[in-house]
Amino acid sequence: MDRKKTEVIIEEGISNSYNLRDEMNIVYITDQRQNVPELTTILYCGVSSMTHVEICSKIHPPTDLLISYYYCTDEIYEAIKQYKG
Predict the structure, then answer these.
(1) CA-CA distance, 15 to 12, in Å (whole number)?
(2) What is the SS3 assignment for 29-85?
(3) b/e for 26-42, b at 16 or more Cβ within 10 A?
(4) Average pLDDT of span 31-44
(5) Gap between the Cα atoms of 46 and 5, Å rounded
(6) What is the C-alpha separation between 79 and 47, in angstroms, rounded?
(7) Is 38 in contact with 32 (CB distance < 8 Å)?
(8) Nearest-angstrom CA–CA distance, 30 and 12
(9) What confidence score (pLDDT) does residue 85 get?
(10) Can you tell me the mean pLDDT for 11-26?
(11) What is d(CA 61, CA 84) in angstroms, rounded to the nearest whole number?
(12) Which of 75, 25, 26 lies closest to 50 in space, CA to CA?
């Protein structure tokens, strides 16, 4: 039997963890907005779950959210209303 080799991840990094990638993106975006306010950044966060709304709520000032009607459940709709204040 021919078996394929499997890569074992010893240490998490931004290339293999979407949570770490999201956190780093939030740090970069927030830092850019604070240190270069004259630079306009157009940023849309794609939202298809409550987790995405929670992640996007960490970006300050809040950014626009982009959501498909298909994913817009009552729960997400209420979270987005609170997100935008």
Answers:
(1) 8
(2) HHHHHHHCCCCCCCCEEEECCHHHHHHHCCCCCCCEEEECHHHCCHHHHHHHHHHHC
(3) beebeeebeeeeeeeee
(4) 75
(5) 35
(6) 11
(7) no
(8) 23
(9) 60
(10) 78
(11) 10
(12) 75
**pTM value?**
0.53
Give the pLDDT confidence score for residue 50 in this predicted structure. Answer: 81
- 31 φ, ψ (degrees, to nearest 5): -60, -45
Residue 20: partners with Cβ closer than 8 Å, 6 or more residues away: 12, 13, 14
How high is the mean pLDDT of the chain?
A: 78
Residue matched to tokens 């970069």: 28
